[in-house]
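Dear colleague,

Thank you for sharing your sequence with our group. We've completed the structure prediction you requested, and as agreed, I am returning the results in plain text so they can be pasted directly into your records. Please verify that the sequence below matches your submission; if there's any discrepancy, let me know and we will rerun it promptly.
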Amino acid sequence: MTDTPFQRQIRSFVRREGRLTPAQSRAIDAHWPTLGIDYDGRELDLDRVFGRKAGRVLEIGIGNGDALVHMATNDPERDYIGIEVHTPGIGHALRAAGAGNIANVRLIKHDAMDVLTHSIPAGQIERINLFFPDPWPKKRHHKRRIVQTPFLDLVFRALSPGGLLHTATDWEPYALHMLETLLADKRFINLADGEDLETGAVPRPDERPLTRFEKRGHRRGHGVWDFKFTRAD
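Please find the predicted structure tokens below.
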């Protein structure tokens, strides 16, 4: 895997690699050549990458990849692309995808903003999933939150007409920030009815499995908020 030096000044993540287990390392060696995409700053030919024409779903920050692999397994008619900067998460996802012979998954180990800017062709993604991103709770770090106008510019470009942005968080202040930011951007239409957390969020969709972050939030007594916004045309 290549790991191109990061050029932007503000990152929405901090690298916390943790320990790469032997099983994860073996999974990377075995499955990266077929399921991995080396970032090189050039636009991808997704039909060539997957060997077919199909609807495409992009997940930003896959964590350990459980949600990505679950959704790809249960939706074989679509192709799933996962972006993650942490190597253990990549290894965990590759191990699961390889064990299940999941052919409709590809992984990119790089920053999502770079990938969205340079690698994802315009208008070719049906759905973008952003589940439990770092909430950056301290006020001085709010500028690092990924849900900002520059991110939405890239989301709008990547989504096909009528495409969907699905976000989820278990941090209430970040949920408010997400909702306010998305409601202020008239390029996106809320699939829920209201403008506060009670009415502006949607129930957890069946297609999104419970993630370890969500389970941790439940244990801490946190609420969980899902937002679905479609690309307006």
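Summary note from our side: The beta strands are 36-37, 55-60, 78-83, 105-108, 125-131, 159-169, 188-190, 225-231.

Kind regards,
the structure core
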